[in-house]
UniProtKB/TrEMBL annotation:
UniProt record similarity statement: Belongs to the peptidase S54 family.
Subcellular localization(s) per the UniProt record: Membrane
Record-annotated Peptidase S54 rhomboid domain positions: 79-223
Topology in the lipid bilayer: Multi-pass membrane protein
Protein keywords: Hydrolase, Membrane, Transmembrane, Transmembrane helix
Transmembrane segments: 15-33, 84-104, 116-134, 140-162, 169-194, 206-225
Keyword Membrane set for record: yes
Name of the protein in question: Peptidase S54
Length: 231
């Protein structure tokens, strides 16, 4: 079930959405120039490694941190922003940028260009906090724009619930169907909760709780903006 486009065109050119996509692609091109060791080092320095900030609270994990520490040299505050612009592979960046392309223009249209930029960044930070609550001592770097993009999707959910998402479904043969945005995004959100719960048991490389947290942030802020718009 892959979304292709929505049925609501934006009224203004979404320059911030385009700029965010451009920056993400540019950084990914840089990643392609790195060898495996350099790429791993890049992820650990500019992605968020929860253990980097929590190892002092647990002796067992402090031992793990001492093994990781030699490759860490970035300022500890930089990853809070930089992790949102780094991706782990082709499917990661293509999927994220596609979802941002579909949902970002309308939300940016609604709240304005610069407001959208701040909303996007703080949505990513809230998503990070949500991920952190379930991965307090994780030694693995969190990278990707999906938390911030999930916030955009949450805002879209409350602001453009009446929209429809043209979706590609492959069931024996591929076909297109228009799914109400409120149903599509609700199902997506529930799946993040379910997958996040399962991943706590089995382990997973996908930050489902960051997706859920970002979506919740987007719903809250999106609803406040919607209410102010109608007053």
């Amino acid at each position: 079930m892959f979304p292709l486009y929505d049925t609501i065109p934006s009224k203004k050119k979404p320059v911030i959405t385009y700029s965010i996509i451009f920056i993400n692609v540019l950084i990914f091109i840089y990643e392609l120039t790195l060898n495996n060791f350099q790429l791993q080092e890049f992820f650990f320095n500019y992605g968020i490694v929860p253990l980097r900030y929590t190892w002092k609270f647990n002796y067992k994990y402090s031992m793990i941190w001492k093994e990781i520490f030699p490759v860490i040299y970035s300022n500890p505050f930089v990853p809070f922003l930089s992790h949102m612009f780094i991706h782990g592979g082709w499917s990661h960046i293509l999927g994220n940028m596609w979802f941002l392309w579909i949902f970002g223009d309308n939300v940016e249209d609604k709240i304005g260009h610069f407001n959208f930029l701040f909303f996007y960044i703080f949505g990513g930070l809230f998503a990070l906090f949500f991920h952190w609550m379930f991965n307090f001592f994780s030694p693995y770097p969190l990278v990707g724009a999906s938390g911030a993009i999930s916030a955009v999707m949450g805002a879209y959910f409350v602001q453009f619930w009446y929209s429809r998402i043209v979706t590609l479904i492959i069931w024996f043969i591929p076909f297109l169907v228009e799914i109400p945005a409120v149903i599509y995004l609700f199902i997506w959100f529930v799946l993040q909760i379910l997958n996040g719960t399962i991943s706590n048991i089995t382990g997973s490389g996908v930050a489902y709780w960051a997706h859920a947290g970002g979506f919740i942030f987007g719903m809250i802020i999106g609803n406040r903006v919607k209410r102010r718009y109608y007053l």
